[in-house]
Amino acid sequence: MKRKILLFDTSSVLHAAKHSLGKARLSHNDRNTFVIYGFMLKLHAILAKEYYDIAIFALDSRSSKRKDIYAEYKENRSKSTKTKEQIELDELAYPQFEQVEKFVLPNLGFKNLFKAEGYEADDIIARICHLYREDEITIITSDKDMYQLLAMNVSILKPREHKIYNIFDFKREYGIDPQMWKRVKVYGGCTTDNVSGLPMPQSDAAIKKGTAIRNVGEGTALNYIKGTLGTHTNTYKAFTQSSAKKIIARNKKLVILPFYGTPKFTILPDNRMSKKGLVRIIREYNFKSIEKDFDSYCKVLKLR
Predict the structure, then answer these.
(1) Is 304 part of a structural domain of the chain?
(2) Could you tell me which residues come within 8 angstroms of residue 18 by beta carbon, excluding any fewer than 6 positions away?
(3) Are the C-beta atoms of residues 51 and 3 closer than 8 Å to each other?
(4) Relative to the CA of 132, which of 109, 210, 240, 264 has its CA 20 to 30 Å away?
(5) Are residues 126 and 11 in the same domain?
(6) Using CA atoms, how far apart are residues 103 and 101, in angstroms rounded to an integer?
(7) Facing residues of 158 across strands?
(8) How does DSSP assign 215-273, residue by residue?
(9) What does pTM read for this prediction?
């Protein structure tokens, strides 16, 4: 029997909560709660609109096997690249991410909390999509890398605008099949994860001047794949030069999902806990507004 699976990129939803309520800085007993509260609001909003049989939460590991291949992977997210305000917000928010994983979700009774050392939520989500092809899957994420997973049975729900994005939406926007999106990422790199695209050929004059090397981006990679890039242009040479092969081989390992060796996961039935779990969350964080909507939360979260 086909099941409706909601597959959460948990970090993506938490970051959305962080940015939407970061200025509010809600707290209780000198402990920040604004991310946890925002997560609860978003979880309620999503589950209230989306029918589901099972909810799965994919979680990021602190370590990344991709760093072993490319030391600069996600280095654009290090403290050295952030403003003082961004660092302060992260320091307030990240402990709350852990609270959601270790206290909130277990108390709500969700059993399918998947995490694997060295792998990212993206990898776990991709592995589940490949394993459970007979089920209808909706991925909750803002990450465009996930476009490569779109299929007739797989769609994406963007949590910030609560918009469903499916295989037909993708084809209309980009003019290619979703399976080709991985090639776009391989050639064009991923600015979000600090993965550089193919380097553009440099003229002798540029080399003498020491001009910074430009890289192929998403748009150029897309044009190359669609065959709309002039074969006699300097830009086209970026894809055919001898140095491209090494970058392509590296990027395939970094951007194609799932990462090699991602373990398999067995989905458990969502045997939800009682309403007592929600009561514990409300008391722990003093969520008065959620207490007022207690019956609605119990219905949406299928608490007994």
Answers:
(1) no
(2) 34, 35, 38, 89, 93
(3) no
(4) 109
(5) yes
(6) 6
(7) 163
(8) B--HHHHHHHHHT-S-TTSHHHHHHHSTTHHHHHHHHHHHHSSSPTTPPP-PPPP----
(9) 0.91
What's the rounded Cα separation, in Å, for the pair 238 and 187?
Answer: 9
How much of the chain is in helix, strand and coil states, percent to nearest 5?
Answer: 50, 10, 40
Do both 55 and 109 map to the same domain?
yes
Per-residue model confidence as pLDDT tens digits over 182-227: 999 999 999 899 999 999 886 544 434 444 458 899 999 999 999 9
Inside any domain, residue 266: yes
Q: In sequence order, what are the beta bridge partners of 271?
A: none
Structure token digits, residue 155: 């769609």
Predicted confidence (pLDDT) per residue in 135-194, tens digit: 999 999 999 999 999 999 999 999 888 889 999 999 999 999 999 999 999 999 998 999
> Do 201 and 222 fall into the same domain?
yes
Angle of helix 34-49 relative to helix 10-21, nearest 10 degrees? 120
C-alpha of 108 from chain center: 22
Report the number of distinct structural domains present in the chain.
Answer: 2
The token pair that represents 171 in the structure block = 């084809």
Element (H, E) at 284: helix 276-285
Q: Could you tell me if residue 147 is inside a domain?
A: yes
Cis peptide before 199 (omega within 30 of 0): no
Token pair, residue 4, equals: 């409706």
Domain around 231? 178-255
Start-to-end C-alpha separation, the chain: 24
User: Are 176 and 222 spatial neighbours (Cβ–Cβ below 8 Å)?
Assistant: yes
Residue 23 in domain: yes
d(CA 13, CA 129): 19
Contact 122, 257 (CB under 8 A): yes
Tokens of 230: 């002039």
Q: What is the DSSP letter of 28?
A: E
Same domain for 286 and 240: no
